[in-house]
Inverse folding.
């Protein structure tokens, strides 16, 4: 967490959130019933805060915590297959100090990177409702406002992509010309010099079918690193 009080207070508010009754019920039910392989573990069962500091230059926006991933560990993209892909890629390109993340106290540290999500609670069947995304977008808006050093945003999946664009515009920012349309490897420079990169989400549905391969996914973060190196020259 950052020493910036406003950012810290925002994350504390996220963890206490109970805006969406369906999500509150589901996340707590999952935490109580568990699954056999994690039956001896204490589940987090609350909204999952962002990981990283507000002075990050790279922001990664995902969809939502997994029921037995972030909803169990209390750290975003931690303890599930999507996280395995993400942290491996972040490590490969110097944004993380290790390629795996299994718990909140496993020593993982991010460098110049903040990871957040369109939704902070695990949704049933990984399918959030529009109203739930609207409720949660207020938190994403605030994170975007507070991360003044951001230079690159990587949106993982179409829901995260659309949530970012809505939050960006709701903060009073503009998009010149044609509105970005989601595709893997899409890249747009937004007003103010922020670069938006879109990627398929590293869900098992995409990785096990070959829709998203490791070289494809690593190319996203290689490009993010290239942009930041140019900015910091």
């Amino acid at each position: 967490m950052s020493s910036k009080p406003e950012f810290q207070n925002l994350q504390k508010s996220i963890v206490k959130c109970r805006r969406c009754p369906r999500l509150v019920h589901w996340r707590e039910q999952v935490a109580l019933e568990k699954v056999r392989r994690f039956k001896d573990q204490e589940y987090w069962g609350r909204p999952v805060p962002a990981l990283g500091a507000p002075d990050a230059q790279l922001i990664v926006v995902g969809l939502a915590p997994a029921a037995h991933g972030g909803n169990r560990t209390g750290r975003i993209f931690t303890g599930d297959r999507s996280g395995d892909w993400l942290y491996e890629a972040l490590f490969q390109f110097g944004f993380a100090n290790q390629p795996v993340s299994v718990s909140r106290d496993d020593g993982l540290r991010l460098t110049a990177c903040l990871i957040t999500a369109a939704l902070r609670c695990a949704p049933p069947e990984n399918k959030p409702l529009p109203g739930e995304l609207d409720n949660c977008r207020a938190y994403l808006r605030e994170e975007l406002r507070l991360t003044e050093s951001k230079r690159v945003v990587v949106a993982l999946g179409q829901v995260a992509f659309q949530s970012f664009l809505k939050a960006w515009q709701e903060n009073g920012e503009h998009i010149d010309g044609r509105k970005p349309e989601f595709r893997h490897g899409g890249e747009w420079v937004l007003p103010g010099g922020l670069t938006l990169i879109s990627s398929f989400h590293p869900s098992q549905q995409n990785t096990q079918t070959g829709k998203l391969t490791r070289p494809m996914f690593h190319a996203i973060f290689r490009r993010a690193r290239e942009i930041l190196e140019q900015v910091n020259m």
Summary: The two ends are 27 Å apart (CA to CA). The chain has a mean pLDDT of 95. Residues 51 and 115 are 5 Å apart (CA to CA). The chain has one domain: 5-231.
